Amino acid sequence: AQSVTQLGSHVSVSEGALVLLRCNYSSSVPPYLFWYVQYPNQGLQLLLKYTSAATLVKGINGFEAEFKKSETSFHLTKPSAHMSDAAEYFCAVGPSGAGSYQLTFGKGTKLSVIP
Amino acid sequence: NAGVTQTPKFRILKIGQSMTLQCTQDMNHNYMYWYRQDPGMGLKLIYYSVGAGITDKGEVPNGYNVSRSTTEDFPLRLELAAPSQTSVYFCASSYSDGTGQFFGPGTRLTVL
């Protein structure tokens, strides 16, 4: 069974400050890991994904995440927050390989950016 | 290329009514999914399909039904609406290599 834990349902940062959103996972097989962003009243948009290649993954809008197997973590970071980053962020884990299809989502972290 | 489209955007139902949420994708994805999203709970998988004619239950299938007669369409049916089905419903699709799902804009359903 897979599970995802996102630490902190709500994170506030000042504009220009570092963004760090935490995600820990459990999986019985090598995982695929994803971060999605959801803006108000919209669907989820894929930010980045880890699929067993490079452990440091770069995504859209200046976000990146590092896969750390020893810590079972996949934290999302951005060096400098922008007002437009205010949204809800979801971490998800999936089984790896062809034929995989189910994702398990975390409960989400709402990011507020203070001007 | 419209991606994943869902209709309607909003709907209010009375208890016991039925309705179908429509989902269409134009990316030729084999895999399609229905999720519901409740505040603070993340997304829960209702049903999924790995190809036309093949569907299976997810984590929370009770009260819902699906069909997949074509690659493009994956409608979700609510037969007897209940207040517990008040939620935001998202349809998604993906390739079969597990490299990420594409989501539609969602349908906000209220059952009164």
Structure description:
The complex is a heterodimer of chains A (115) and B (112). With 115 residues, chain A is an all-beta fold. Helix content of chain A is 0%, strand content 56%. In chain A, the strands form two sheets. In chain A, strands 2, 4, 5, 9, 10 and 11 form a six-stranded mixed β-sheet that branches. Chain A has a five-stranded antiparallel β-sheet with strand order 1-3-8-7-6, with no helix packed on it. In chain A, a hairpin with a 4-residue loop joins strand 7 (64-68) and strand 8 (73-78). Chain A is globular. Chain B has 112 residues and is mainly β. Chain B has no helices and eleven strands. The radius of gyration of chain B is 13 Å and the shape is globular. The mean pLDDT of chain B is 93.
Architecture blueprint of SSEs:
The complex is a heterodimer of chains A (115) and B (112).
Chain A (H helix, E strand, L loop, with lengths): L2 E5 L2 E5 L4 E8 L4 E8 L5 E7 L5 E3 L5 E5 L4 E6 L8 E9 L8 E2 L3 E6 L1
Chain B lengths: L3 E4 L2 E4 L5 E7 L5 E7 L5 E9 L2 E4 L6 E3 L9 E3 L8 E8 L7 E2 L3 E5 L1
